[in-house]
Amino acid sequence: RKPRHLVTQLNIPKPVSCPSLVHTEAASYGQEIDGLSQLEKLQVLGQGNGGTVFKVRHKQTLALYALKVMQCDRGTPPNPQELNILRQTNSPYIVKCHQIFTKPSGEVSILMEYMDAGSLEIYVKSRGRLSEDIICTISRQVLKGLFYMHSRNIVHRDIKPANVLINEKMEVKIADFGISKIIQQCLERCSTPVGTRAYMSPERLDTEKHGGYNGFAADIWSFGVTMMELYMGYYPFLEPGQEPDFLSLMLAICFREPPSLPECSSEKFRDFIRCCLQKDDPSKRWTASQLLSHPFLADA
Fold it and tell me: Global pTM?
């Protein structure tokens, strides 16, 4: 067992609440955990941007958490973008960060809330394609999370089924800010080519053909593709079972028209997806705030 002085705990100050978006429970960090030695690793939940996520249990209270462990080079500070965003976020639609621990070796451990149903990717694989009613419930919560982020000049840049978590209460929360970027000025644009290509917007894959990249609009494109996948049960830009590669994705996303939902879907849902997947002019894509008032959600 390592001496206690080798582990540094970073206490996270409580952010200022926004009453219209934040429940009072979300501001409570619960019992403070003194060190990693108080946590028992139960299983690996997955691997994300720069780290491995474990399901852990607090030995004293038996409370369950998710622990993301990232390894940085010795003497190199951890990714400040992810840590700063985690410190600043306080929303019921964003996975909550409880504490952060660092070691001199460069290891950073982020203790987060545990979502017992896993990601939407896992949820759909176990239950099959989802109904419009369930997608409506999921969409509303994800959009509230995106509205919270975008109104604070935060771009996620990797919205996809694997990065949206759900629990058995049907609470849905955005996770994995490993490649998020805070935009300091409203007109500033992200230009780093990161994220999962299958969910990238056309202008992000081919800037010359489709114009400049707007991170907020790109998040909406990724959200729209994600909601389509939940309904169809497979990635909508390719045929079922087709393995994605860079060339096939470039052709499908940049040079073909966006896919349409089947005729059995409602007109409101089809229009909702069209508002997300405006291809030729990203500025015509609806914002998170506008989508929250779309009839598909507003009339539900």
Answer: 0.81
Taken as a whole, the chain contains a residue count of 300
CATH of the domain at 257: 1.10.510.10
- Residue 44, classed as helix, strand or coil, is strand
CB neighbours (10 Å) of residue 62? 8
Amino acid at the residue 298: A
- Write out pLDDT tens, residues 236-268: 999 998 888 888 888 888 889 999 999 999 999
Task: Quickly count: other Cβ atoms within 10 Å of residue 172's Cβ.
Answer: 23
Do 124 and 109 belong together in one domain?
Answer: no
Phi and psi torsions of 38, nearest 5°? -85, 0
Q: Which of these three, 50, 81, 113, is where a domain ends? A: 113
Asked if 276 and 206 sit in the same domain, the reply is yes
3-state DSSP call for residue 46? strand
Residue found by looking up tokens 């419930």 in the block: 137
Count of domains for the chain = 2
Domain span at residue 229? 120-298
Half-sphere exposure of 138 (CA within 13 A, CB side): 27
Is 2 known to sit in a ligand binding site?
A: no
Enzyme catalytic residues: 158
